[in-house]
Amino acid sequence: MKYLWTTIHVKDMKKSLEFYQDVVGLPLNKSFSGGPDMELSFLGDGETQIELICDKNVKEVQIGKDISLGFEVDSVDKMMDFVKQRGIDIVAGPISPNPHIKFFFVEDPNGVRIQFVENM
């Protein structure tokens, strides 16, 4: 068995695509219609991807606060500067529980916690 993707139901496909492409740096692999009121997009490189679903008939998206998606970065300090320049609030961190790792959290446009991790 292999892990394929994480699905996130989003309120606004355009804002979500901008976040995951421009901030996280994931390439868009494919976008398509899932019906008259539904858009789907897959992002990422390699085997594991993120699937975004925007259903215009759904008024509110429920996001769990105890789940986060982690992405490795070369420098937490540079990434913190980058997200601040884009007007994105840091919701926690930087945190360094040991000398080998440092990370911080932001939220995507839907409230999903995103963790940026530097392995030192």
UniProtKB/TrEMBL annotation:
Residues 2-119 form the VOC domain. GO terms for molecular function: lyase activity. It holds the Pfam family Glyoxalase. The keyword Cell wall biogenesis/degradation does not apply. Keywords: Lyase. InterPro entries: Fosfomycin_Res_Enzymes, Glyas_Bleomycin-R_OHBP_Dase, Glyas_Fos-R_dOase_dom, VOC_core. This is Lactoylglutathione lyase.
